[in-house]
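Q: Hi! Curious about what Divalent metal cation transporter MntH looks like structurally. Here's the sequence.
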Amino acid sequence: MMRTGSNATEAVQESSWRNAVSEPSLPEVHRSMKVPQKGSWIRKFLAFAGPGYLVAVGYMDPGNWATDIAGGSLFGYSLLSVIMLSNLMAILLQALAGKLGIVTGRDLAQACRDHYSKPVAMGLWVLCELAIAACDLAEVIGAAIALNLLFGIPLVYGVLITALDVLVVLFLQNKGFRYIESIVIGLIVTIGACFAFEMFWSQPEVKEILGGFIPTAEIIKNPEMLYIAIGILGATVMPHNLYLHSSIVQTRQYEQTTLGKREAIKYATADSTIALVFALGINAAILILSAATFHRAGMTQVAEIGDAYHLLAPLLGTTLGSILFGVALLAAGMNSTLTGTLAGQIVMEGFLNLRITPWLRRLITRMIAIIPAVIVTALYGESGTAQLLILSQVILSLQLSFAVIPLVKFTNDQKKMGEFVNAPWLKGLSWIVAFIIVVLNAYLLYQTLFG
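A: Let's find out. The predicted structure is below.
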């Protein structure tokens, strides 16, 4: 009797979409990882742990570094509260993305294709591809800068080396999705370890750090501080992560019942929340390091990643300070290109329902980012890549609203989500977050173009 009711509910949910659910997202790894039906909650949590860390990568990618470094050098610890609030927004949005994938069996790209008319869906796809290309651009350039700083490899060659991640993803995905998750988690731990040493050497003021997490009115009153604060928000909440998360939560073999989905939502939310708290720590560490070294020394105009690398050694009193900074940057760039390639595949398949061989799909995604990066790097060098990084963040800000609003709309829709629809308080909170993101990113875009 319960089974019949469940099927009837699912039928009603399916009828609210323009198109029936198609082939699953990332079919080669869909429902490929077993979830124990019995045993302790720890075993079940560990079975679901992993996707959250792939998502967290986007919150500590090279695009975040420039804004965090600039904020710390110019305003000390004051903008830590902005990093914290941005991450809290991200935790909410990623939880909604995971829920959408688990309940509907669609990733966000598929949901947009199945809900909106074809012209609207195609428009959203174009905007999303631009955003992924912009995000990839930041990651590719970040990794290339790290290779240049650590090994003296010219930027153009560094950009080309990052194309090899296509082969890495193909190899690891054939081995199993857990291998990709393990590599990503290993690189995140490397980044965390590097910054733990940096914190030890920089000896920041604990009292000032705690004070920095308390929001102040000055952030809004000071136009320059507000601009950097919105830049931090724009670099923190990444649109491609919403598409990515709604897909990779479906790699788990949770039961397709009300109880199974409810359990999957609980563990997937816990996984992404813990991972994003770790990302908050990394982002905060970058800003704290900048505040404790550059701001303390009166160097308030440090905003370039390369400048930060060269200045850290004399200020910290050890060359290891710069080396570990470069290693962390390289790890962040490598991680981000891996997850960016996956996100590109998800978006192309989801919006277009286009099925082509995995290597070609990933190669197209990677080339969209690498070609402009190679051209600009070859023509303008390091100064050109810095401008390209700024442009990438503007494009991301422009696209973010077009990912957040559909996500909030779908998860607040009773017909689409059934009994899993957001609670009234969550509906209100999610729309408030969406409104804040839309307004602040519109302001950032205006200031960047005309300010």
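A: A fun detail: The two ends are 63 Å apart (CA to CA).
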